[in-house]
Amino acid sequence: MSHTAHIRSHRKPRRSASRVAMRAGVTGGVLGTLAVAGTSASSANAAEPVTQTLELPTLTSDLAAQVAQSAEATEQAAANYRLGAERDAAAANAAKQAKTDLADAKKKAAARKKAAETARKKAAEAAALRASRTAERPTLSASASVGSTSASVSTATGSAAAVVSFVKSQVGKAYVSGATGPSAYDCSGLVQTAFRQVGISLPRVSQDQSTAGTQVSLSNLQVGDILYWGGAGSAYHVGVYVGNGMFVGAQNPSTGVVERPLSYDPPSGAVRVL
To answer: Where are the alpha helices (DSSP H) in 149-182?
Structure first.
């Protein structure tokens, strides 16, 4: 042990209890302050999330409702827009179709009007032609015919009598277009077949038969003359004069082969081949 150890002034000074206590107090105060501050901060920080956590569901629910309402409104607006567009398109198509239908109706009406006008003109022309032909024809009567001809079957002889006898025997048979007998005839078929009985070959159709012989006046008819209706070379019907102001012809499907007076349907002209 040092010889100076017992001397107080030569020992290391000890920290006083008061200074240690003071430092401990300061340290404890600082730590306490920090602890309080930390606790306060922790309390503040802990309290804030609780408040937010309580309010967050309410805010989120409202926001979701608003978003849903906005989406629904947007979808409804889009649906309304589509519906409006479809209606506009339908109206436009309907208007276009109506315009087309109106144009077609006008065209059809114009065509019908034109057809009716054409038919009227043709009917008027046909009536005028018939009137002119009637005016040109001499008036035929039974007495005049008999007086101007030796026209009676009893006085007809030879080929004329044979032709007249044949056509009279066919009266009552059917009219069939293109037929030449023996059960049915058309007008030129009957005339051709009748003259074939006496060895005379005639053309098949009325137009050619109307120019097959010598043209004769209707006021100077003889038994066996071929009568025709229409123009010479363009006749549409023929028959055979049988005397006494009468003729025999295959008229039409409803009457067949008949014997009629000349006044029933006055002919346009006559030819003589016998």
So the answer is: 158-169
